[in-house]
Amino acid sequence: MRELDKKAAEAIEKKAPLGPDINIDAYAEKPPIHNKVDDLSTLPDDDKDVMLQAGVDVNEAERSGSYIQKDSSAVFSFSHDDGLEVIPIREALEKLDWVHDYYWKLIAVDTDKYTARAHLDLQDGYVIRALPGCKISFPVQTCLYLEREGSTQIVHNIVIAEEGSEVHIISGCAAAAHATKGLHIGISEFFVKKNAKLSFTMIHHWAEDMIVRPRSATIVEEGGLFLNNYVSMRPIKSIQAYPTTYLEGKNAVARFYSLLVGSPGSEIDMGGRVYLRSEETRAEIISRAITNGGNIIARGDLIGEVPGVKGHLECHGLILNGGFMHAIPELSGKIDGVEMSHEAAVGKIAQDEILYLMSRGLTEDEATATIVRGFLNVDIPGLPSKLKAEIDRAVQLSQKDVM
């Protein structure tokens, strides 16, 4: 820990290479200490409504476990499955020696000022582990909830899918209805062991003046599968994230899917990077982004380091009512025998498509809404039907802003 402390202290002012530089001290409101709850149904109704919009069901219907953090306080953590562990990370670091084998192992603590602050001022976060050979029947849900206006929430998460296990996680990140301004710094480290399967679906439901700086990395061993799904359709001031995955074992697979809507004033810089480091590994990065006045940078990077690997990038952007869209697909082949491709497109809705739908009886607004829904209709593996319905609802709400 002392070495981590030293490195973090030296990087406390280190700017990130991507995204606008943020003055962390501008978000210095001290959050209250929230008491633990034994039953999520006792949470305030306003909190429950916002959490549900981020995919978190406080009734825990068809959920294998839950972790809820309000501001800096872990208020609830529980597992309903004997093959699943859900533990607040501060508690895990104090009581479980093995957790230190995973803590800051995939992300350098001195990467930038955000990782440094995440170590020096850690509030909490979760450790989720699927035990060897266990197929967790229902998704695990987590919610990182910011309630105090003008405060900073700092979390560190570790997810481990042990050999032969399977686990699906729904992570909802949200701000209370009255909290329009805040900063969220999140560190996430994912470990997918041999022949394990992990899907991680993150739904952001932040506020229009929120700053978000996630830092995440994943390692996938032989025969492992990692699915990363990201959905952000609500107004946000700034988010910059570039999750990195290392495919270290034969036949390891990683797939990234993202749906983004940039509202006026939003600065969104999102992407995914995959290193294909072992034979017969495969990777896919697919993004759909719409700007109705915000600025969006959609990145994708595949690095093939051994023969026989396959990868595909697909970045599609749609510009409505102004804004800026920049798609940056990158392919790096470091040896003969790699097979990688990319497809990128940025444009606007074709007028002939609108006219055709209007000829079928739709108004111009209805025609535009129909085209936008079709553009965002990406089949995301591992996403429950209720969340698909929530995504459709979010798309409709975003269209109201466009119109």
Write up this protein.
The chain is an alpha/beta fold and 403 residues long. The protein has two domains: 2-349, no CATH class; 350-403, no CATH class. It contains seven helices and 21 strands. It has a ten-stranded mixed β-sheet, covered by helices on one side. A six-stranded parallel barrel has the order 10-12-15-18-16-13. A hairpin with a 2-residue loop joins strand 1 and strand 2 (73-79). Helix 1 (2-10) packs across helix 4 (113-120) and helix 5 (351-359) packs across helix 6. The protein is globular. The mean pLDDT is 90.
Describe the protein's topology.
Elements: H1 2-10, H2 45-53, E1 65-70, E2 73-79, E3 84-88, H3 89-95, H4 113-120, E4 126-130, E5 140-146, E6 151-161, E7 166-175, E8 181-192, E9 197-205, E10 209-220, E11 225-232, E12 238-241, E13 244-247, E14 253-262, E15 267-270, E16 273-276, E17 282-291, E18 295-304, E19 310-319, E20 324-333, E21 339-347, H5 351-359, H6 364-375, H7 385-402
Parallel strand pairs: 1-5, 4-6, 5-7, 6-8, 7-9, 8-10, 9-11, 10-12, 10-13, 11-14, 12-15, 13-16, 14-17, 15-18, 16-18, 17-19, 18-20, 19-21
Antiparallel strand pairs: 1-2, 3-4
Helix pairs in contact: 1-4, 5-6
